[in-house]
Design brief:
Blueprint: E1 11-15, E2 18-21, H1 22-43, H2 52-71, H3 74-96, E3 107-109, E4 114-116, H4 125-147, H5 149-156, H6 162-203, H7 209-245
Antiparallel strand pairs: 1-2, 3-4
Length: 246
């Protein structure tokens, strides 16, 4: 039996000529799921928490305290925490739902062949790249808000001397490299884990793939943490460097 491994997600159907892929469908499902869970808990909060509220309070409280240790100030923590935590919880849930049993049996006939209804969201580079661009734009906004637009542009376009011009170009290259670093790390690890699991399941579908699946599970949790923490560190570095320059 041949293996069907593709970088691009599968197109399930089209709406007004716009293709809807399996990763887009599951992205919508997970976003709605998180909105319902957090919305229902916040609307019915109790003084003595129990069950789901207690779990979410521990999760959010622990994440906030960790963000505080990196951002240092309370003001900065309150500003960056919503973005960083949202990215963490979204990537974490998106990675963990892959391990719900029976997903490979869910397929749909598109008229051009049978394709899987579910695919790991973070194995879609388009989505990962969109999240990365949001992170990078936020980093640049923080930098501009700290020192102003003119000093910000002056970091990259400084022609006072050949050395400063060269360093400005290197700064610009470094900002672009952050896009590659953030996106490829998350996408590469999740996609590689997906491919490895498929290969092992096709070779030995019973007990042999289990260690690789546990390794993939660990990677799923670690990559959610790494992506959000790197975003936090980059934002914090941007504000600190520009505060010193200001």
């Amino acid at each position: 039996m041949g293996l069907n491994i593709s970088l691009a997600p599968d197109i399930l159907f089209s709406i007004a000529g716009f293709p809807i892929t399996n990763t887009m469908v599951w992205t919508t499902v997970i976003v709605l799921f998180l909105i319902v869970i957090f919305g229902s808990v916040t609307r019915s909060m109790k003084l003595v928490p129990g069950g789901l509220q207690n779990l979410l309070e521990v999760l959010v409280g622990g994440a906030y305290d960790f963000t505080r240790t990196i951002a240092i100030t309370e003001k900065k923590t309150k500003r960056v925490f919503p973005l960083v935590f949202t990215m963490f919880i979204f990537v974490l849930v998106a990675n963990l739902v892959v391990y719900i049993p029976g997903q490979s049996a869910l397929t749909i006939d598109t008229g051009q062949g049978v394709v899987p209804l579910f695919r790991s969201i973070m194995s879609d580079y388009g989505l990962v790249l969109a999240m990365t661009i949001i992170s990078i734009i936020t980093i640049q906004i923080v930098a501009i808000a700290t020192v102003g637009p003119f000093k910000y542009v002056g970091r990259f376009l400084n022609f006072r001397s050949p050395l400063k011009a060269f360093l400005g170009i290197m700064e610009l290259v470094g900002e672009v490299a952050k896009i590659v670093s953030l996106s490829f790390r998350l996408f590469g690890n999740i996609f590689a884990g997906e491919v490895l699991t498929i290969v092992m399941l096709s070779l030995a579908p019973f007990f042999v793939p289990l260690p690789f699946m546990f390794l993939g599970l660990l990677t799923a949790v670690v990559q959610a943490f790494v992506f959000s923490v790197l975003t936090l560190i980059f934002i914090n570095m941007a504000s600190e460097i520009h505060e010193e320059e200001a």
